[in-house]
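### Sample
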Amino acid sequence: MARLLIYDNYTDRVFTYPTVDENDSMPYSTESTLLVREFRGQSGSPTLWTTTSAMEAWNLTRRRYGRGIHVGYAFRRIWEGGHGTRSQHYAGVSFDVGQTTTAEHRTEIFNAALRTGAWGYVEPLSLTPTWVHFDRRYGVPACSGTTSGYPTLRRGSRGCYVMILQDALSTLGYPTGERIDGVFGVLTENALKGYQRRNWLTADGVCGCNSWAKISTSVLGVGRTATTID
């Protein structure tokens, strides 16, 4: 069983599914083409998250490809590691797929994903020799000169990047509340200011380029701690 948070990009709301079975279809995915356990992958987290737009992009890709797509890696929490410091896997909007199929089929999956126009990024096959990567990133990266990374967050922000921030700060010992909820409120702001003060950053309660760089580097792959929340 898992607790599932879905951020709706269109209404700027976070929907909570308190108990979903591992063999249930992911909300907003169609025809059982993506199960909760497939989205989870190797993550041991009791709480998972993604967006409605990522599920819609998955539906379009699966429909164009016309066959089942093996998912090797999708969701991870930043303290579980396994990817880069600002990977879209931690936002629950990234998929590495096709590891068990042939190069020919991976090319077909790649073309299907690309032609949907629904993904924020489809990685060139030359960079992914044994898998296909696509993600539905959103927002403007806080660090200029790049299309990757996470957007600037401040009080009032909502979504999966807020979930990453709450996860990271709580794991590092800066409490953001009892549960991850994807809503940047006063507790998340105070936790961020506390982290910024202790790490020689401007304590303005805004998570921009410098704060993201420090936080993500500090928490990546450290494992669950006594202060981690779900």
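The chain has a mean pLDDT of 96. This sample (Peptidoglycan-binding protein) is used throughout the tutorial notebook.
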